[in-house]
Amino acid sequence: MRESLFNLLREECEGANVLDLFAGTGALGIEALSRGAKHATFVENQRGALSVLRENLAALDLAGRSTIVAEDALHHFAPGAKFDVVFLDPPYGIETARAALGLAARSAAQNGIVALESNAKEPELDAPAGFMVWKSRRYGGTRITLYRKESE
To answer: Is 148 contained in some domain?
Structure first.
């Protein structure tokens, strides 16, 4: 799934400031860093996942290009912080995805992208205000939707 997501994004990560909400062990943010992202912010609140995330960043010598925020992703919002690419792989179904998409939209920079991974059996979420559905693909039971912030 990760390879499919990054094939959709193509060069969008190059030089980007990325946010990985519900980061888990950091796979999406780390992949973005490996594809040329400038900096990644990881938001995760589960102790076990945080421990593995820290180990992964240290092992790959990426700690200097990353920030870890040990909070619940649905309650993380840094006023003024804007990200070129925001990754969302929220647990718990469509309502969590809807709430996370609204949060991610507020964190996206001008022309920013929000990448949402969701259950393909659930309806695709409408684009937040000021965004458009840029790309959407189904891969078995998973849907990847890329929302792009429209010019103001």
So the answer is: no
Give me the number of domains the chain comprises: 1
- The answer to whether residues 108 and 114 touch, using CB atoms and an 8 Å cutoff, is yes
Q: What stretch of H or E contains 104?
A: helix 94-107
Measured distance CA(143)–CA(68) in Å, rounded: 27
pLDDT, mean of residues 113-133: 92
Range list of β-strands (E), 70-128: 83-88, 108-119
Question: What's the rounded Cα separation, in Å, for the pair 73 and 63?
Answer: 20
Q: What's 65's domain CATH number?
A: 3.40.50.150
Q: Residue 46: pLDDT above 70?
A: yes
Reported pTM? 0.92
| d(C-alpha 114, C-alpha 124), whole Å | 14
Beta strands in 2-62 (DSSP E): 17-21, 39-43
Rounded Cα distance between 78 and 104, Å, is: 11
Amino acid 79: pLDDT: 58
